Amino acid sequence: MKYGHKINTQIHGYDEKGRGYGQIEILPGEMRKVVTPFTAQGDEVVAVFAKREYGLKICKLDEIVKPSPDRIETTCPHAGTCGGCLWQHIRYEAQLKEKERGVRELFDDLGLKEAVRPIIPAKKILGYRNRMDFCVGWNGEVGLKEYGTWNKYVDVQECQLLKSGVKDILQTVRELMKQFDLQPWDAKFHKGDVRYIVIRDGQNTNQRMVTIVVSDASRISKEARVWLVERLTTHPNPLITSLLLGELTKPTDLSLAESFEVLVGNPWLEESVNGITYRIHPNSFFQTNSQMAAVLQDEVISKIEGSKTLLDLYCGLGFFGIAAAKKQKIEVFGYELDEEAIKLAAENSAQNGVEDKCRFESGKAEDLSWKEIKADTVIVDPPRSGLHPRVIKALSEMRPNKLIYVSCNYHRLKDELPAFVQNYQVESIQPIDLFPQTPHVEVVVTLRSLLRQEGVGGS
Asked: What are the residues whose beta carbons fall under 8 Å from the beta carbon of 276, sequence distance 6 or more?
């Protein structure tokens, strides 16, 4: 098959990245899997062969010959192109069904299918995100990257995943570059001025923090800064509560600045979840769906009832630990690599009146400085890459009474669970939809030590 070759195929299902797949006959009697993003199960399509990826043939959708019953009209003009929403064209009920099926099927391989509970649906399917990172393309585009690419950009006018006002903020940045002769960042040749626009919302506090990430802050004149502040604070209603200028001198294509200058407001954002207020640093991780973060927090905290000491690994700015100290009245030890997040965790515990119950320290989880803590419950909420092998080994040796694993990548979780199930019983696997319009799903696994159940040790 040559690049640009057109094929007719029916979409039979979705791969682990959420892309529709079908089959074509390569040779008589020999079928080959082909993957086409932005398709729905049941679609009959014409697709164009675009590239190979790890042995798969990846196609681009050319024509929908017969739409799936699960296909709906999208409301976003960028749907089907940008990488923000892979599933906006699929009915939400079908999204949920596919997410739950994927979780059940994957854990069935471990004999845990019966432990999987029905997925908890999102309360909102649009306008739910509290953070979006908009990139600046080499040709002056301000928006998001095209799906599946690193150097093609979509000039976004509005993003329906965030609250209103995005259009005006992005347009202000376009005008800023034009007005003050600032160059868009070129990720290939590592040159230019303006790199990212990070918008963070306190959906329950009505705060909005915008960070303009540039390669050299000295290139942004005083006049440009004054102009930017005036446009974002008076147009026609204030669009922001905080404005930061972030500097990232490294060529790495990231939105995380190395230093910040506050132009308006505070150097942090506040968000409230379940009556607990958190200060969030511009670089710090926070669950991106505030409404469903409350559901996730309730699910996790309900599992630690009766515990006396909690070890919160990858604790961030104290999202689970502070809630545990406040609601379950237990002693909390939190560990996190991000030093700024740890500082805010301490501030957040004081702000919420539980500083006497919480201790937060910065360090790599794999350094095992937490290993000697006698905790009867451990929460782990690692990044998508999962747990370090040394962390898995240490937890298996510690055998706390309960282990609660919060995962944003259940495919990785499935690979790690076998190391635990020889010493733990999996009580429940709870999928929660924090990411509507995408294939991603949050999963909470609750494990109880078999030794504790048999009476060895105690909580």
From this structure: 322, 323, 326, 348, 352
